[in-house]
Amino acid sequence: MTPLPDHLLESVAASAVAEGLADALYTSVATPIGPLLLVQGSRGIVRIGFDADAADAHLAAVAAHLGPRLVASRRQLAGAGERLVAYLEGDVPEIDLPFDLSLAGTGFRREALEALARTTARGETVTYSELAARAGRPRAARAAGTACAINPVPLVVPCHRVVPSSGGVGNYGGGAERKLRLLELEGALKPSRPTTR
Amino acid sequence: MPSVPPHIVPPTAVAQGVLPPFWSLVDAHGDELLAHARRVAGPEHAEDVVQEALLRALRAYPRLRHADHLRAWLYRVTTNAAIDDLCRRRREEPAADPPAATEDPHEIDGFEDLIAALPDGTRAVLRLRFVDDLEYGDIAARLSCSEAAARQRVSTAVRTLRERLAA
Prior knowledge:
The complex is a heterodimer. Chain A contains seven helices and six strands; from the N terminus they run αβββαβααβααβα. Chain A is α/β, with parallel strands linked by helices. Chain A is globular and about 55 Å long. Chain B contains seven helices and no strands. Chain B has helices at 22-41, 46-60, 70-92, 110-115, 120-131, 136-143, 147-166. Chain A binds chain B through residues 1-5, 8-9, 11-12, 15-16, 19, 21-23, 26, 41-43, 56, 59-60, 62-72, 102, 106, 110, and chain B through 1, 5, 7-8, 10, 15-17, 19-24, 26-28, 30-31, 34, 47, 50-51, 54-55, 58-59, 61-62.
């Protein structure tokens, strides 16, 4: 991390936002499921990352899509960060933040993620083939799985609600353990292992 | 599907995907830029100078055509911000500083005017570093001295400039 004082950096960030100079803002948010990288462009949340080690790669991808003027600021993203935490602590039912699927590319993957955000509610799970059907291509279960795997904004677009028809919770970018925990939080699954891990 | 908004179209095609995220430069070089601003503008003004320099750099960043020498570019932007800060303070504070009022502060026009009163050797060193934008190795070659000596001479020259401007 930079040793520049926080107040200086936040002051630069505030001026950058006021002048419209930032292509995207980002920060790390401490949450009950671990630190999350939160990146917000002018149209909404554009990236949420679970893996702190991959932050540089996430930010480079955002820069390639939205422009290179990325600015870190905890203060400018305080509202979005608090909303994420409130959701993960069970204080609010949905995250309800605007999002931008620029990093999901175009075509069916993006359509599947849009359908997922539009049609699934808290407490619900859908199978990959059901998601494919909701996106208009019932036979594209595999492509729906790929869409979830490349979802740039997990949690906000709730790919944790998509499970295999064969049972179990299936894969998750943040790890199966987190997926299980999110589904339990939303009441889609009964807490299976209250204390042991 | 919404059309692509204009703000995500990079100003130059070359810049897209080539320039690193701006804040990675702040993370990597912020501390040395602050140290540089302290040397040029003085410790009490260094943070303001760095803040101004980072905003100037952010404004110009998407127009850069390549990602070479970004650190040297940030140093140059910071030096310019520091010099502008010194000039602005000289203009604003003549009454508080009677000796400086003997010369017309409005005559200060850029780097050459700023260094005009300095000894020849000092001016030459400052030009090599901040006008020609040479690295210390190249300055050492021009001055036929070691790199460490070149750093020392630049550092002394900057201190002399700052002391003259503050006098």
